[in-house]
Amino acid sequence: MNLGRASIPKYLALSLIGAVGGFVAIFMARGSGGERWLMIGCAVILLAFLAYVVWLLAFKNKSTHVASQAQKQAALRFAPSPGKGVIYVYRKQLVGLLVGLNVVLDGKSVGQTRGLRFYRLEVEPGTHSLSGDKKCPEPLEVTVGEGEIAYVEQEIVMGMVKGSYRYQRIANIPQAQQAIYSCKLLLGAN
């Protein structure tokens, strides 16, 4: 599923070239004793890092809309509409706070979470599939009945080379609700 990602190699290559250039300048400063080369090297490394952060925030993340305080208070009542079930998907981790992680419900994009954010998804009773992009290798099947609520935590999994994320259904309702209270409500795509 193509979710509108920017080309990673283009920006990553520029960042790597800048970082290598910065290290070369620092190495040259060691040999010549010049403070100027040291400052240039540090500046180039900083610019390479800033370019990567700008790419990450501007191109990789999708725009998300935070709900009003009244909408959040309604969601925090934890009460489904008649004839519906509810799935709360939340992310309480501070790891990767600004990185957007895709939420896909039954093949339809809901949006992206960031750290300390949640979605309240009203669904028809039955079994539903929560997935994401290729960084979320295993979808989670969630079954909710009429008037039932399911709590699902979206969790970043740190890897050796790159990270991924997964969904985990939380059975401890007070713990899940406490985590959600400290999060901001996001409005999903309709």
TrEMBL record:
Transmembrane helix recorded as keyword: yes
Keyword annotations: Membrane, Transmembrane, Transmembrane helix
Transmembrane segments: 12-31, 37-59
Protein name: DUF2846 domain-containing protein
